[in-house]
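hey can u check if this looks right to u? its 179 residues, i copy pasted from the old doc so theres a chance i mangled smth
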Amino acid sequence: MPIAIETKGALAAAAAALLLNGCAKTEAQDKPPADTRPHVVAANPIEAGRYLVRVGGCNDCHTKDWDVTAGAVPEDKWLMGTGLGWQGPWGTTYPANLRLTVQNVTEDDFVTMLHTRKDKPPMPWMNVAVMHESDARAVYAFIKSLGPAGEPAPPPAAPGETPKTPYIVVAPPIMPAAN
C-alpha cells in the first residue's frame, strides 16, 4: 500500500500543478489582442494627424492655394476652408473651415461624424468612414493643435441657385444617346 499512497500524492501534486499552471496568466494573456487593422503609428497623435491630413488630401480642398503652390502653404494657414465652391447636381458646396469645426465638437463627436456622416460631394465621406478610430482621433488632435483661425465657409447653394463666389462645375458631360 505504500506505493498507492505515493502515487496518490504524486497525482495530487501533478493535478495541483496543472491547475495552478492553467490559472496563471502570462504577460501576453494580460494584453488585449493586437489591433491588426491598418492605422498610422507615430511618435504622438498630433504627428499622426499631421501625416494623415497631408497624405489624405485634406489640404487639397480645405486649404486655400494648396493646389497652386504645390503644397507650399505654411502650416499655420492649413485647413481654414475656402470660398471656392464645388457645383454639381447637389447644388454648390464649400470646404469647411476644419479649424473652426473642431472648436465646436468633442473628439468623440468628430470621430462619430467621420464614421457616419453622409453629405454632399465632393467630400469623400465613404473614404473617411472607414478610417481607423485612432487615426480619426489623431486628425482631430492635429487640427485642434492648429487653433481656431479664419472664417466659416459660405453656406451651400441649392441646385439651380447661382453662387456668389467662384466655383468649379463638377458634372459629367452630356453623353450622346447610345444606338
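The two ends are 101 Å apart (CA to CA).
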